[in-house]
């Protein structure tokens, strides 16, 4: 049985774009495939700083984790 994983992607500045999100998602999906993981959700925050946890999708992911529908979160450092 595959482990269930979610992907969290974010960009924060004007120098990063939607393409940055696409690249993060692509790398996370490739990693999940190599590790035989099942991606069950994506959480994406656009143009929000990582210096605070007051990011809507990040907080939704934390809240969803309480349901125990997934065991891992895949993300890239930004």
Question: Helix and strand layout, with pairings?
Answer:
Layout: E1 3-11, H1 18-34, E2 37-46, H2 56-65, E3 72-74
Parallel strand pairs: 1-2, 1-3
Any overview of this molecule?
It is a single chain. By secondary structure, the chain is of the alpha/beta class. The protein has helices at residues 18-34, 56-65, and strands at residues 3-11, 37-46, 72-74. It has a 3-stranded parallel β-sheet, with helices on both faces.
Features:
single chain, 78 residues, alpha/beta, 3-stranded parallel beta sheet, 2 helices
What would you report as the Rg, rounded to the nearest angstrom?
Answer: 13 Å
Strand numbers in spatial order across the main sheet: 2-1-3
- Percent of residues in helices comes to 25-40%
What structural class should be given to the helix and strand makeup?
Answer: alpha/beta
Number of helices: 2
What pattern of helices and strands is seen along the backbone? Answer: EHEHE
- Average per-residue pLDDT, rounded, comes to 87
Total beta strand runs: 3
State the low-pLDDT regions, or none. none
Shape call = flat
The share of residues in extended strands comes to 25-35%
- Largest pleated sheet: 3 strands, parallel
Intertermini distance: 31 Å
């Amino acid at each position: 049985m595959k482990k269930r994983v979610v992907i969290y992607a974010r960009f924060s500045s004007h120098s990063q774009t939607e393409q940055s999100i696409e690249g993060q998602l692509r790398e996370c999906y490739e990693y999940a495939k190599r590790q035989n993981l099942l991606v069950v959700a994506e959480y994406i925050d656009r143009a929000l700083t990582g210096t605070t946890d007051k990011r809507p999708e990040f907080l939704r992911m934390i809240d969803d984790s309480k349901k125990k529908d997934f065991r891992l979160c895949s993300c890239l450092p930004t």
